[in-house]
Amino acid sequence: MKKKLFQLVFNTFILLFIAIIPVYGQWTELNSGVSADLSDIFFINYTTGWVVGDEGIVLHTVDGGASWAIQDTPTDSALYRVVFTDEDHGYIISKQYSEDGWLTNVFPNEHNAGSSRLLLTTDGGNNWTVDNLGDSLQLLGIHFLNSDTGWISGRDSYNLIPILFKTVDAGNSWNKIYEGSVSGISYFNDVVFVDNENGWLFETKYDSEDNPTIIFRTFDGGLTWSEIGQTSGPAFTATLIDQDTMWAYGHNYSGISYDGGINWNQMDNFNSMFPLSGTAGWFVQGYDISYTDNSGISGQYLTLATVNSIFAFDKNLCWAVGRYGNIIKYYNDVTTSVISSTQTPLNFNLGQNYPNPFNPETKINYHLPFATHVTLTVYNILGQEVEKIVESELPAGYHSVKWDASKVSSGVYIYRITAGSFTYTKKMLVMK
Fold first, then answer.
1. Is the pLDDT higher at 20 or at 381?
2. Which superfamily does 2-331 belong to?
3. What is the number of alpha carbons within 13 Å of residue 119 lying toward its C-beta?
């Protein structure tokens, strides 16, 4: 009953998108330096992010979007999805091209359709390499659980079957771990995991009037799948909030599930969305972009071009990209410096300490996409343990810890986080 009541209230707020709403932050049009259409955006922290688009364009910022630098890529294909697991390791999916060089339609069914490509970087995008996972593949969804483990979903356009790949070594190698059945025109549009074993796969079938999406569930890392539910329309992109709550949207369809993907409540049609919880997020409808929660709508903005993708940390900080090189940013400087613990990061991340160099204190930020046991340890340059500054079970969220180096001498120190299966190491400099 409560969920149905919220659904009614939520849809009422969405229908008020064009009403006069108080705006407490400010939207700014950023200078991308390009005119090509931009398709996706991803930030690893408040300042460092990437944008991808047509003509092989990759843009990189280290100042929150105030300035953008073009990163060279080995392709001029249209780029579709971008995700980074830390400041160095990133992945881009290109759209599919036919053998004669023309971009195929959104849902190709020709046996000779060309392949999507996977671009990888290990140095923050300064250098990109191309990984061809196979011929005649259309890659659509990508999800990384940590720096090593990730999945890519899509379709084998030659054999006309949906497919799923997995890596456990940061994209150095990919194994095809699952194939769907040959039943009409169907795609694994997206894949999401909450941990190493539990995941969801979204298969859209384009052989019926409504083009429904079938929801599959795995409990063994993606080796076997069972059908658990179905949406009433095509769902291209999924966002997992927790094991029970997830959002999905596609062409003329948006929906939310509160029971792990079994049942779906259809919402208003959104061009794009960036949910932050089961009751709040950023949503685009037509040319309107707004933040909505159960207290109302804020941050409303009427864009001048179609918005293709959004990325946000909370209701106070959001970026959006779209056609003709447009990038816009919403910023509320009252509370943006503190992210609510109710917001869940998409990936694990260990940030660079700040300040660095420092004396005697520094701050280390780290992100947890789900609750887990966390150990954060400082070592000297010889690999000897200096201090264990975090050793605890922690909830999902954005965390930070201060380290006091007053008892150690000047020099380079190493700090290492272990959170579940995620492990990452960085260096810092004590200067007295």
1. 381
2. YVTN repeat-like/Quinoprotein amine dehydrogenase (2.130.10.10)
3. 28
